[in-house]
Amino acid sequence: MSAYDEFTAHIAKINDLCCVLNLLTWDSRTQMPEGGTETRGHQISTVAGVAQEMFTNPKTLQLIDAAEKEVAGEPEDSYRVRAVKYAREHYEIARRIPASVVTELNELKSMSQAVWIEARQKNDFKMFAPYLAKMVGLQQKIAEAIGYKEHPYDALLVRYEPGMTARRLKELFAELKAGLTPILERAKAYPEARHDFLTERIYPADKQKAFATEISRKFGYDFDRGRIDLTVHPFEISFTRQDVRITTRYDEKYAPQALFGLFHETGHGLYEQGADPAITRTALATDLLDLYAVAGTSYGAHEAQSRLWENLVGRSEVFWKNQFPLLQSYFPEQLKDVDAEAFYRAVNRVKPSLVRTESDEITYNFHIMIRVEIEMGLLDGTISIEKLPEIWKAKYEEYLGVTPPNDTLGALQDIHWSSGLFGSFCTYTIGNIMSAQFYEAALKQNPEIKPALEKGEYKPLLDWLTENVYRHGHAFLPDELLQRSTGSKLNTGPYLRYLTEKFDLLFPHK
Ligand code: ZN
Question: Where are the chain's structural domains?
Fold first, then answer.
């Protein structure tokens, strides 16, 4: 066996264990009776421990060293060279974080999540505060262990958005703020589009599912390698490209939640299904730091695909021109006095709100900026835990002109901090920015995509994305991937152009 094959066989076993972990997680969030919670926790931690041991074992380093020698001289962007390089990078980072810190974090996570749920129900921030303080302390320890030049946030970003820094994020956010604020102000000056047919009529769940399934299929999601299940907090998860699952929940009183939610998860699913068969069970289809089977190269790149299909495609005027008759065929009564144009306007309302997950394309980014600024402040010590609720409120007033009436709708809103996901919020907005870069490049490079979209055909777009993005897995860092496929690194140009064009038509300058 060649050294590279030996390395690959070792990583394949780690990938198998990651797929098992994913499956245990999928099951616990879709099928498992509540009684299984405690024993499932043990099962996950046992399998994760085995995978962790296999990866951080010095044997892995020997295999990496030997494989590296063997692939030396091969093209720098070949999957073989990239798989070794990527495994080495993750190995070195994983080895820097002391095992005791990992254990401490895992124990704190389950406790602080439970306390967060209760604190949120009781609107009691003080109850959650000591756990959040511990969590911030641990995240600071992890940042120190990983190492950084300027800001502890930089070290935490390695896990979610390699190559990104706090400094660069601040610049991107400043550009977005300058570009989005005038659009938001203009939107606020317009009367809200008619939407009674979305909020005052009942849409049976089985029909929502049937419509969304048809759209997923049209987008190119392969049901021979995928399925849709019910859950409380929708997600996508895969066990190699051969089995990629998406989940949803249905609100019969508000259908857009499941419809756009499924477009979103379909986008994540297409990324995973589109991975090159050659990278199956390799490092390029494995997050070796988080021990998670995933082919998407970063959280932002993944989110870019969900956003692209949900918003740039699924919330566009041409999409609803094509697909509204299909929707109407499922809901003839509910939509009898509505046309495609009215539906398009209703699902593109722009309105500042308190809740991130219910926000529109424009205000979503402000919700993220607020969280990221607070995260950075908590990590560098410029924001204290006790002042957090106040600062949250002040920022909502400043950015969105709305005031949370309590902490449940304020600083206790998201699960992320209690789960230790410091550094992940920014990837939602990075995903938005990237989605427009990929979309603009696809339309420019292949002139057949636009006329196809106008006919309701999505294959040319999917083919471009698969060829340029999906198939590569972790082979390229986000900026490398963008540079190769679009000709530029991450930048706000295409995203601001897209939003300005779209919302100038919805809310014309008076
Ligand atoms: Zn997503």
Answer: 3-123
